[in-house]
Amino acid sequence: MIGRIAGRLDYRGADHVLIDVRGVGYIVYVSDRTMAGLPGPGGAVALYTDLQVREDLLQLYGFPTLVEKEWHRLLTSVQGVGAKASTAILGTLGAEGVSRAIALGDWAAVKAAPGIGPKLAQRVVLELKDKAPAVMAMGGGLPAATGDAQAEVLEDNPAPPPAAPAVQSSASVQADALSALGNLGYGPGEAAGAVAEAAGAAPGADTPALIRAALKLLAPKG
After folding, report:
1. What angle do CA 196, 201, 204 make, to 5 degrees?
2. Within this chain, do residues 7 and 52 fall inside the same structural domain, yes or no?
């Protein structure tokens, strides 16, 4: 299985790109959100990939982070959610938005994706809610699929993580807050819901601020 592709972007279609990897062109389907973050033709690009196998078709789907790829894998495990529906959900919400919506049980946010009806959105939230904490926790230590101008295809295993950035990403902050709440004895589900709600209210919060906000949400009412 092809797990990551890095090369030169040759062509941008409506829902896919053509990536040249040492003279071989790979068609990779991406969400609108991912497409917007890619360079123009001739630019270096790298994406984590998932190969969809059908009886009469093989298609590669690309994702900028391993967290987004994992959400794609989980979304497509839900009955009625195919690769295109998963791409629509991720394109509308992004990986962090999907984490937040599912942790909070917010099926209306999932329903906002094109082609997703209320029953399917409710099924997604119901089936994946218990898995949201584990995916949110992944966000702290996983690299984005950044690549250089040298084209490469890595199968199964992604490249080693790059040096940690000076500023934590939102996913990393949420993962650290989730870990801290777990260390304080809160269950994964309630911790994930509180972190997701706090992150939605203050998207730019650092880890200590997010922990404080989540603890306020978890504090007994009354």
Report:
1. 90
2. yes
The CATH number of the domain where 123 resides is what?
1.10.150.20
pTM of the entire structure?
Answer: 0.75
Residue written as token pair 């071989």: 24
Burial of residue 221 (number of CB atoms within 10 Å: 0-12, 13-18, 19+) = exposed
- What total number of domains does the chain contain? 3
For 84, the domain range is 66-130
> What's the CA gap between 83 and 50, in Å, rounded?
10
Summarised one tens digit per residue, pLDDT across range 77-87 is 999 999 999 99
Three-point CA angle 23, 3, 95, nearest 5°: 120
Question: Token digits for 14?
Answer: 């409506």
What are the tokens at 30? Answer: 């991406």
Check: CB of residue 170 under 8 Å from CB of residue 151: no
The answer to whether residue 157 is domain-embedded is no
